[in-house]
Amino acid sequence: NAGVTQTPKFRILKIGQSMTLQCTQDMNHNYMYWYRQDPGMGLKLIYYSVGAGITDKGEVPNGYNVSRSTTEDFPLRLELAAPSQTSVYFCASSRQGVGSYEQYFGPGTRLTVT
Amino acid sequence: AQRVTQPEKLLSVFKGAPVELKCNYSYSGSPELFWYVQYSRQRLQLLLRHISRESIKGFTADLNKGETSFHLKKPFAQEEDSAMYYCALNGGSQGNLIFGKGTKLSVKP
Fold first, then answer.
1. Which residues of A touch B61 (CB under 8 A)?
2. Minimal Cα distance from B46: which residue of A?
3. Are B94 and A50 within 8 A, CB to CB?
4. DSSP state of B9
5. What is the 3-state secondary structure (H, E, C) of A6-60?
6. Which residue of B has its CA nearest to A57?
7. Which pLDDT tens digit goes with each residue over B5-53?
8. Cα angle at B41 between B37 and B47, to 5 degrees?
9. Chain A contact probe: residue of B42, B86, B96, B103 with most A CBs at under 10 A
10. Nearest CA in chain B to A108
11. Distances from the Cα of A54 to the Cαs of A24, A105, B50, B96, B98, in angstroms?
């Protein structure tokens, strides 16, 4: 049981490049989330999904896209990378949304855009 | 607006001293609050949730609705408690968490 896995761990992008951050969970959780964390700040929600085929925007969705074709996978796509997207990205999953359900986090992807 | 405030960026104490990490929240309705912790080189993980009313690793947190606070306390800090601590609020039906900026706890020998 690996929990939530993310790849890559680190990445450097040039301005205007695109990339996909991968996230996979093996806990059969319906809810999945993408957060970003800027230095000295708390995590902010980018996108979330309540099940396969269903996604919605969070607090800071601009410049990102997601898809959820399976329960396990929730990739985050960056189009036309900008320096403002330099951040640490965390994927998380949860069995349910409403209620005090634990969120399980991946190890994070540290992205630098130069 | 839903918001979580952790006023201290860094809290430094000596081993054996009491610890209190402050958390205040803004939320209309009944809040669901959590403390998450990130130890060095480890992923973010749940420490405790208010609904459980449990003590984890000696830490407790009481929800005070009058003061809109959910402070994390431990009577005797240990060096292994050194970590980043995040207070978080369940943001709604989609289950996303609203995080504070975090407090770095450093426990000195």
1. none
2. A102
3. yes
4. S
5. EECCEEEECCCCCEEEEEEECCCCCEEEEEEECCCCCEEEEEEEEECCEEEECCC
6. B94
7. 999 999 999 999 999 999 999 998 888 999 999 999 899 999 999 887 7
8. 15
9. B96
10. B43
11. 16, 20, 30, 15, 21
Out of A41, A45, A102, whose CB is closest to B96? A45
Query: pLDDT averaged over chain A?
Result: 94
Contact B43 A108 (CB under 8 A): yes
pLDDT at B52 (0 to 100): 79
**For residue A105, which residues of chain B lie inside 8 Å, CB to CB?**
43-45
CA dist B91 → A91, B16, B23, B88 (Å): 17, 35, 16, 9
The nearest alpha carbon in chain B to A3 belongs to B43
Q: Is A9 an 8 Å CB contact of chain B?
A: no
Q: How many residues does chain B have?
A: 109
Q: Calculate Rg over the CA atoms of chain B.
A: 13
How do residues A30-83 score in pLDDT, each as one tens digit?
999 999 999 888 899 999 999 999 999 999 999 999 999 999 999 999 999 999
A78: which residues sit within 8 A by CB, 6+ positions away?
A: A13, A18, A19, A20, A21, A63, A64, A85, A111
Enter the tokens of residue B80.
């292994």
> How far apart (Å, rounded) are the C-alpha atoms in residues B101 and A79?
27
Q: Residue A102 corresponds to which tokens in the numbers above?
A: 């634990």
